[in-house]
Amino acid sequence: MPSMELNEQLQNLSRKFEILRQRFVALQNENKELKRSVERQELEVAKLEKELSQMRIDNEFLKVAHSVPRDPEAVSRYKKQVAKMVRDIDRCIKQLNA
Q: What total number of domains does the chain contain?
């Protein structure tokens, strides 16, 4: 009789262990998928930040371009500003590629 009871307890423990093992495997798989999802989202955020940065630069350029007066001195001044912006953009691109 005690032997039957012990066998039943062992079988019960074995079933519980198998359920826990299956849950563990499922949670491991879910964790892996969530990590992949986070990586994809981080890449998307980086891409969007880069686009936002470029749009800000373009916006600044358009502000300058639309505010250029027609006198030659001002045009010369704005050309220098645009050249500086281009150098800044080139510097930023080099830093991003580094």
A: 1
